[in-house]
Amino acid sequence: MSDKKMTSSRKHHIKSLMLSIAKGILEEEERERERERERYMAENCPPVSMPRTMQELQELCKEIHRKIDKVDEERYDLHMKVNKTNKEIEDLKIKVQDLMGKFKKPVLKKVRMSADAMLKALLGSKHTVNLDLRANLRQVKKEVKEEELRDVGDWRKNIEDKSGMDGRKKMFEAEA
């Protein structure tokens, strides 16, 4: 048994040591951030001296506006730089996929969906389309069939009329 297992108390002790070291490092980083912030503020934001005349006040406002413009330009430049970098990253990702030559197709689930539900999903909830196919079918009028049956009348009478040569002659004359 070359693998010696650590006891739970030893694991617990090592874990607590790691946490205390990490806590110290985080506190030091926080103090360093605070010092950096104070240095930046002292460098870029000197204390404001309140002007006593209208002329000094106008000069102060102009100075503040110049600084605001400068900061806005820097922010815009950084924003554009980030967008450009993101675009380059996306292009490189596409090139890598092209070079690999494999596009993974996701496995699609089979979903049973009615035509109404599919149209609702495609068109959104605002458009409600009813695909009632039975409503679009042509209606057959039954009255026409009943009138034909009345004209035919009794079947025995028809058979007697058509029997013999006279009946066949009448049948051909009626068709022509």
Description:
Helix content is about 75%, strand content about 0%. The model has no long low-confidence stretch (mean pLDDT about 80). By secondary structure, it is an all-alpha fold. The chain is built from seven helices and no strands. It has helices at about 10-45, 55-100, 115-125, 135, 140-150, 155-160, 165-175.
Topology of this structure?
Blueprint lengths: L7 H37 L9 H47 L14 H9 L9 H4 L5 H11 L2 H8 L1 H12 L1
Query: What's the end-to-end separation, in Å?
Result: 111 Å
Share in helix: over 70%
Q: Determine the structural class based on helices, strands and strand pairing.
A: mainly alpha
Mean pLDDT, nearest integer? Answer: 79
Low-confidence stretches: none
How would you summarize this macromolecular structure in one to three sentences?
The protein has 7 helices and no strands.
